[in-house]
Amino acid sequence: MARSDEEQLIQSLSADLAPVRRLPPPAYRALVWLAAVCVIAVGLAAGTDVAATVRRITAAPDLSLAVAGSALTAVLAAIAAFQLAVPDRRWTWALLPLPAAALWIGASGAGCLRSWLVPDTSVPSPGETEACLIFIFGLSVPLSILLLAMLRRGFSLQPKLAAAVAGLAAAAAAATLLNFVHPFDAAATDLAVHAIAVGGVILANELFGGRILAAKNSAKNSSSAT
Amino acid sequence: MAAAQAGDRASYALLLRDCILLVKTIAGRQGVPADRIDDVVQETLLTVHRARHTYDPHRSFTAWLTTIAQRRSIDALRSHWRRRKSEIDASLALEHHADPGPGPSDRIEARGRAAALGRAIATLPAGQREAVEQLALGEQTLAEAAASTGRSVGALKVNLHRALKTLRARLAGEG
User: Is there a contact between A13 and B68 if contact means CB atoms under 8 Å apart?
Assistant: First the structure.
């Protein structure tokens, strides 16, 4: 681009300039999304025996840790996804939810061990495991759509990574909310199904969400180039 | 940049002009070839424009711009490598590639064919020869040929048709 071309582009961009509404801080935007998750949680709690759910979770330390891990993963992954929707944030933000995810997976694994060693643990049947899979997928879809719609307001230079982290946030939130309707102790099959559901949601988000965010960026670039 | 977010065009143009040198330096440092640096500048300025609402005035503008320029440099490098991968360095093939233009033997052959055609035209009856010379070789229109020879358009058409038929038969017999 010769100097005259640079000047022409600058003139064209300056002429196209309109005042913009500044993007709110990523943590604030994450809070808005988490508030939507909380609304769903309240709706689910209204239809279930919350006291029984709390008793069941607090009775087993591994289950409490697993729930805390999945909830924390959802919060941290949402913050990371919104950070990654801002151009000057590094990819290392994607690592933020990983310790919480490790706690979630580790505690769930310990729960599996307990269900083998301790008698009278309540493990789900194959049909109930399938229902878990449907619940996680079913709830992850609207949560992912809402999250991606909010991420589109930003401008991610790493759209695939941002979308994958958003998928982790949605799946972790769905897995946390599953506890309201999932009166079982962890079992190996159950854990495997949860892992498949979460992995599937992350992959689908990376594939489709990444494309949506990337297409939006390139559409923005081409529209301003013309 | 905060002024640009509020819609101040003059400040914005000034800012973009100031960005160019930094973007070029970053692109050079990232290893972008010299002929692709202008593309990086263009892409970075476009991204700055479209992502300007994401800039937080409490943070460093240089850091914000640097990340965008680095990313666009990586994109330019990737596209450069992809292009180089699809191109084949075949200097040897170029040396051995036959020239599709006419060679010395083609020219001799063409000269021979022209001489044979000239001889065949010379043996045609006067009316037919005249039609060929005026219409085919002289590239005249039927009206022009009719005016210059004093023959009717219909007669010229018939003579040309007969002449071509005769020439085709004679040249085929020679070949």
Answer: no
Q: Are residues B65 and B132 in the same domain?
A: no
- A48-98 tens-digit pLDDT: 877 877 887 777 777 888 889 999 999 999 999 999 999 888 899 999 999
Instruction: For residue A225, name the pLDDT band (cuts at 50, 70, 90).
Output: very low
Judged by CB atoms closer than 8 Å, whether chains meet at B59 and A22 is answered as: no
Question: Mapped to the 3 state alphabet, what secondary structure does A12-75 carry?
Answer: HHHHCCCCCCCCCCHHHHHHHHHHHHHHHHHHHHHCCCHHHHHHHHHHCHHHHHHHHHHHHHHH
Q: What are the tens digits of pLDDT across the range B104-156?
A: 777 788 888 888 888 888 888 888 888 888 888 888 888 888 888 888 888 88
Does the beta-carbon distance from B50 to A220 stay under 8 Å?
A: yes
Give the ipTM of the model, two decimals please.
0.72
A98 min Cα distance to partner chain B (Å)? 24
Which of the four pLDDT bands, split at 50, 70 and 90, describes residue A224?
very low
Question: What is the distance between the alpha carbons of residues A191 and B154, in angstroms, rounded to a whole number?
Answer: 96
**Which residues of chain B are within 8 Å of residue A89 when distances are taken between CB atoms?**
67
Out of A19, A88, A89, name the one closest to residue B5 (CB). Answer: A19
- Regarding whether B65 and B130 lie in a shared domain, the answer is no
* Chain B residues near residue A220 by CB distance under 8 angstroms: 50
Indicate which CATH number applies to the domain containing B136: 1.10.10.10
Looking at residue B34, the DSSP 8-state letter turns out to be: G
Asked, for residue B113, whether it belongs to a domain, the answer is no
Radius of gyration of chain A (CA): 21
Domain total for chain B?
2
Q: What are the residues whose beta carbons fall under 8 Å from the beta carbon of A192, sequence distance 6 or more?
A: none
Q: Which residue has the tokens 């692109």?
A: B27
Q: Tell me: the pLDDT tens digits for A121-130?
A: 555 566 666 7
- B127 in the same domain as B70: no
Please give the pLDDT value at position A184. Answer: 59
In degrees, to the nearest 5, what angle opens at C-alpha A30 toward C-alphas A24 and A34?
A: 140
Assign residue B88 a region (left: φ > 0; alpha: ψ between -120 and 50; beta: otherwise). beta
| Chain B closest-CA separation from residue A111 CA (Å) | 43
